[in-house]
Amino acid sequence: MHLLGAVATWLASAQYRADRRASPPGTFPTGFRDRALRKARSALDARLAYQPAAWAGIDLQDAPERVRPPDELTVAAEQAEAPDRVLTSFEAASRSLLLLGAPGGGKTTQLLSLAAGLMRSAQVKGADDSVPVVLDLASFRGTHCTAVAYVLLPWAEGSHLRGPELSLEQAGRLGELAGHIHHRLNSLPPGSGLARMTAAPRSKVADQGAAIAEADRYLRLISSLEVRLPFDVTVAELLEQRKMLLQEYGERRPASDSPAGPAGWTHGDLQYRNLLWHDGEIAAVLDWDRIQVRTFAEELTRTAMVQFMSKEGLLDLERVGAFVAGYRRLILLRPEDAADALDRLWWRRMTSFWQLDFHYTRGNHGAAELIVPTERLLAWCAEHREEVAAAFTAI
Description:
Blueprint (H helix, E strand, L loop, with lengths): L6 H11 L14 H16 L8 E3 L14 E3 L5 H12 L14 H19 L14 E2 L2 E2 L22 H18 L22 H16 L6 H19 L14 E4 L8 E4 L2 E5 L6 E4 H12 L9 H12 L6 H16 L3 H8 L6 H16 L1 H9 L2
Helix pairs in contact: 1-2, 2-4, 3-4, 5-9, 6-7, 7-12, 8-10, 9-13
GO molecular function, one term: ATP binding
Keywords: ATP-binding, Nucleotide-binding
Protein name: Energy-coupling factor transporter ATP-binding protein EcfA2
């Protein structure tokens, strides 16, 4: 599904660039719809840049009992006749219309012209008329298609708060929210779009030797750089530290691929970047693209690790405890389940090098700021294992 030159992507970015101060909660920013229309119109004009010199007119008739190809295909004498007729017929048919014709007969062009007419109508009528959407049916292939669903929601007022910025009470409420999300996602009726879990989730456990070999590969890559910046030197030192941690704590590798504890649908990325706080309360939970079946303890520990990690790579254990206690007020979670999830998360991060992959392999430096604090947290958690476990498992 192509939305007029990726209008959906533009809408998402435009929403965040808009003037928030001019928009009360629950509404779009001033001028937001007009900018969306201009962008959609620009994309539509590009699609219409290769119009034919004359329009192909298609005879339209009401035949609710059957659908058949038109009897005759003629060329309209006036260029404006065909698109006007299609638009008129579309409105007369309660905005539902089917165009039939041989390939190359001008159906796509007339439909794009219909979209242009609807665009003009949307500009004239204002907020009462919707922005037209163009679907490219050629993207549908048998049982597989490239269709993507888009949703445009009202502006949610709020700001992102890292863990240390939350009070202990707010940390507890965040835990309650995580429990509420898990309960609601797994209590939806059939047909809601989320299938019932049929098998327990698996969690692949990486090999210690493979992780050390991967660290060595990045060390060789860094040593081969013609110019090594201070950042590269720091990363090399951290990689040597990671190898020492892997060798020292290799016995902590989880014994199986079967995580412990109850499982079900989870948000997948519940942390401060995807949470909006307003007037001391959580106003919105964003980015549901990672929703998946996992153990509840896996999401609980990951959220706590990301949310309550300081910029220096330390974990605020007091707020972690409040967060976990808030969650347990809604969801029954045994201490041993949380301990299992904590060990698995720590080992997964010990054997993961995704930030380095982004930085050195893909040329994406957006995660560079996470490398140093993440390495520090790994070492800190290894040294303070008992205190960390107590924060996650205390009742």
